[in-house]
Amino acid sequence: MDEGLRARSIAACADPVGHGPPPVWELELPHHGELVAHRPLMRTLAELLGPSFVFHHLHSDRQRPGIAGKPWHHDYEPNDRADPSLLMVHALHYLGGLDETVGSLAVLPGSHRESLGKGALAHLGTAALPGEVVIDRLPPGSTVLLNSALFHTRRAAPAGPGHPRYFVDASYCQTGARWRPVKPFWRQMLARARELGLADGRWPELFADRHFTEYTRTV
Ligand SMILES: O=C(O)CCC(=O)C(=O)O
User: Fold this and answer.
1) Bridge partner residues of 98 (DSSP)
2) Rounded distance between C-alpha atoms, residue 41 and residue 143, angstroms
3) Residues with CB under 6 A from ligand 1
4) CATH topology for 29-211?
5) Which of 22, 36, 171, 216 is a plausible cystine mate for 8, CB 3.0–4.6 Å?
């Protein structure tokens, strides 16, 4: 964050022609790379997704104290078979945990079964919805695994000085179709992950290009 790498990473996605690839991929940072294929995480993902899944992307952020909420949305990306039964999972890593000094996460159980666009509930902002589950207290180093099609929202922390909120999200897709990449330079990113041996020789599909379509810019 202090060296502007997060900003460079966003700029590379927002304006790939003007900025080119970021100077450092998130997964090149030693602890981020380790987190992508952390063995206990891989074991749990294999239970949820089966033995064959591919890494989709990772974002990393140190959110400023008092950061606003993020309206209800889901993060499921389409695949070229338009097969909604193929699963995508997001791992939300809360490095400093969650408590009243940082914003909370609310999820809407069952909402992953609706076939709605990512922003179909955005007009509700971060409002409390019937049946929601609020996750507002987690110890440091916690990970929440979400079916990516599940609607969720970040709620701002109650007023106060607050604390920085350390948040890394990484996502993974079942193989069986080609998924839409969200980063223009996804090929280089996967190549670097392979070069670094992040899959530890255990997960042959984890960084394989063949599971993706070409990048197209989304609005
Ligand atoms: O900040 C959070 O806890 C969740 C953020 C989120 O919903 C997202 O990045 O898609």
Assistant:
1) 138
2) 9
3) 70, 75, 92, 105, 152, 154, 167, 169
4) Jelly Rolls (2.60.120)
5) 22
